[in-house]
Amino acid sequence: MSTIFKAAFIFVAPAADPSRDYSWVRTEEVHVKTIAVSNYKQACKLIDLLVEEGIKAVELCGGFGHQGVADVVKAANERLHVGVVRFDKHPCLDFSSGDELF
Question: Using CA atoms, how far apart are residues 34 and 37, in angstroms rounded to an integer?
Fold first, then answer.
């Protein structure tokens, strides 16, 4: 049997609670956990838990601005890989960057 690769996708949404607002998609080879957070601090706090779950890579939604990405990369401390979907002004955040909101 092949090894399952575990990854996560984190997105920002007002009033999100990552302990409640998440779901999994599981295929034979890849499991992806999608998690909503309401700010950068919540995303950074998640990193320890994701590492414990065996997550090897995290992709951040376009709502994370440059500072938000830097914060998560610092929290990851090379324990998992961090990738980014890029929007300079995110349409779901009233065309703002998360850096302007958080």
Answer: 10
The domain locations on the chain are 5-94
Between CA 44 and CA 70 the distance in angstroms is: 10
Q: What is the DSSP string of 69-102?
A: HHHHHHHHTTSSEEEE---SSBGGGTTB-HHHH-
The CATH architecture that domain 5-94 belongs to is 3-Layer(aba) Sandwich (3.40)
Report residue 88 as tokens: 């300079």
pLDDT tens digits, one per residue of 40-87: 999 999 999 999 999 999 999 988 989 999 999 999 999 999 999 877
pTM of the model: 0.85
